[in-house]
């Protein structure tokens, strides 16, 4: 802050007031201080501010199951607990702006390290933090444009395995219903499906549907896939949430259409037939992420690692339904 004050030509107290968003500081001084902050790459240390104010700006929420719907987070928590580490998690809700707010807040609080499930394509705001020593591991998706440790599932192999499995069971009209392709995993899985169709001499036509996970869109995707003179006899879904939505739209027709879902779920064995899935090894993802983070904290200069964790086809019945027409 002394450096910022010198660069801006203002008193140290003025810098403090600007950093703490004091509305009584004039706009000209605010601009000078913010310019100096940008030039110097200054980042406030929330820990020092909290010591001074006697508050942390952080709340604890000890609830029954925060990670129930996020198996990777559950695995990260277990691995961290085994290493005597505490994980404080926050949802980014698939929103790039919220993600940046959450991550920057964690950086200001000087967490020992951050496990990030990236949303957007632009993480340039993390460059100064990484240069300042931030320990970061990405899970499920890489941080595009930055060379950081990451743990991924073998998305392409999973889709290829599902497609080949359905072909072996007599299907040649296979549809794919996936997530929004702005998301890395959704993009990888959709691309793999396109390649599978091309490799088997097929045409996409009405067989590929990606976008937001919304009931209306899924309803239209299922309708389009099953309509026409050559409807799909099998469907592959891009994640567990999509599997639930597709099953809801299929209703009683679910027994006539083969279905394989990407991601396992506790609901998978409550169906008739039970849901065949491509399961991610979330325990391996979580333990690997924590191991990589601990290594990065211990030695910031350690070589960046990218680990791809294999997926597994779990046969339960829905993916083995023969073509009905």
UniProtKB/TrEMBL annotation:
Classification via SMART domains: HTH_LACI
GO molecular function terms noted in the UniProt entry: DNA-binding transcription factor activity; transcription cis-regulatory region binding
Domain HTH lacI-type: 1-53
A family per Pfam: Peripla_BP_3
InterPro entries referenced in this protein's UniProt entry, alphabetically: HTH_LacI, LacI/GalR-like_sensor, Lambda_DNA-bd_dom_sf, Peripla_BP_I
Annotated keywords: DNA-binding, Transcription, Transcription regulation
Taxonomic superkingdom: Bacteria
Ranges that cross the membrane: none
Protein name, entry field: LacI family transcriptional regulator
Organism: Planotetraspora kaengkrachanensis
């Amino acid at each position: 802050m002394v450096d910022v004050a010198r660069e801006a030509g203002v008193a140290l107290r003025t810098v403090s007031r600007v950093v703490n968003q004091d509305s009584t500081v004039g706009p000209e001084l605010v601009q000078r201080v913010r310019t100096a902050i940008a030039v110097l790459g200054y980042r406030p240390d929330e820990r020092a501010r909290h010591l001074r104010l006697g508050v942390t700006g952080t709340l604890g929420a000890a609830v029954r199951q925060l990670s129930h719907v996020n198996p990777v987070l559950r695995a990260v928590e277990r691995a961290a607990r085994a290493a005597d580490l505490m994980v404080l998690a926050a949802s980014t809700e698939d929103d790039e702006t919220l993600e940046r707010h959450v991550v920057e807040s964690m950086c200001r609080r000087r967490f020992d390290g951050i496990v990030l499930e990236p949303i957007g394509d632009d993480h340039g705001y993390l460059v100064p933090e990484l240069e300042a020593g931030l320990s970061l591991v990405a899970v499920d998706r890489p941080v595009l444009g930055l060379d950081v440790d990451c743990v991924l599932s073998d998305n392409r192999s999973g889709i290829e395995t599902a497609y080949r499995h359905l072909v072996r069971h007599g299907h040649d009209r296979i549809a794919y219903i996936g997530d929004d392709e702005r998301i890395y995993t959704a993009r990888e899985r959709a691309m793999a499906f396109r390649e599978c169709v091309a490799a088997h001499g097929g045409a996409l036509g009405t067989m590929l549907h990606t976008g937001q996970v919304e009931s209306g869109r899924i309803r239209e995707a299922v309708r389009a896939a099953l309509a026409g003179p050559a409807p799909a006899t099998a469907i592959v879904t891009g994640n567990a949430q999509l599997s639930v939505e597709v099953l809801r739209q299929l209703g009683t027709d679910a027994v006539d259409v083969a279905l394989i879902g990407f991601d396992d779920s506790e609901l998978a064995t409550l169906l008739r037939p039970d849901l065949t899935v491509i399961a991610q090894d979330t325990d391996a993802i979580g333990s690997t992420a924590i191991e990589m983070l601990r290594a990065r904290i211990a030695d910031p200069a350690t070589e960046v690692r990218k680990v791809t964790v294999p997926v597994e086809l779990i046969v339960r019945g829905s993916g083995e339904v023969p073509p009905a027409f």
